[in-house]
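User: You have something folded?
Assistant:
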Amino acid sequence: MDTKDNLLATQARLALDDHRMAEYLGVKITTWRNWKGGQRKPPAVADRLLAVLGTVEALSPALHDQFVPR
C-alpha cells in the first residue's frame, strides 16, 4: 500500500472528514486535499507518522483517542 492509500484508509477507518484528517496529521487542509487528490505526493514521513499512530491506537486506544480531533 502506498502512502496515499494508507492515508485514505486511515481517514476511512477513523471516519474523519477532510478538516479533521488534516488536523489529525498536523497539516493544512490544502496540503491534505493536495495529497488526497493526487496533486502532490505525501512525504515518506507521513507513512512513519501513520505507523506510530497505528501502534499507539493498537496498544492504547484511550491514548490514541486524544489524537483524534472531535
In short: The CA atoms of residues 24 and 66 lie 10 Å apart. The mean pLDDT is 93. Helices lie at 3-14, 18-25, 29-37, 44-59, 61-65.
